[in-house]
Amino acid sequence: MGKLSIEEMRDFSHFSHEHPLELTNLWPQGHTVCSGCKMSIVAGKDYYTCKPCSYYLHSTCYNLPRLIQHPADPNHDLNLVPSASFDCKACGLRGSGFSYNCSFCLVHCHTYVPQCHSQKHTVFILTH
Ligand SMILES: [Zn+2]
Ligand SMILES: [Zn+2]
Ligand SMILES: [Zn+2]
Ligand SMILES: [Zn+2]
């Protein structure tokens, strides 16, 4: 007796943030962007948040696989990592937030531009 169940208080954790995250789809406070893709958080779509830190993640960004295979780096799997900024190997554009990275080859790719990490129609831009 007297043992309280806290099962309903589901916590979600993500490697990119040290605190447990809360799943919600209510309007966030003020203008908020996803830490994974730097795009706006909107109500009505599930997202994960750590309110004390004003940390937000779209559920799609939360659910990104940690490892992918990418034609930009056929020898290694790419790791999902938080990056301050990077140059995407697939489309040549600058990005920030999460990227897929090979730390040996210094390859980065967008996580949120499907063409940038799809195996099928990746267009490589040669930069010199
Ligand atoms: Zn996002
Ligand atoms: Zn936090
Ligand atoms: Zn890209
Ligand atoms: Zn590599």
From TrEMBL:
Signal peptide feature range: none
Pfam families reported for this sequence: C1_2 (PF03107)
InterPro entries in UniProt: C1-like_sf, DC1
Domain of life: Eukaryota
Keywords, in A-Z order: Repeat
Domain spans labelled DC1: 15-61
Gene3D superfamilies per the UniProt record, alphabetical: 3.30.60.20
This protein's name: DC1 domain-containing protein
UniProt organism field: Vitis vinifera (Grape)
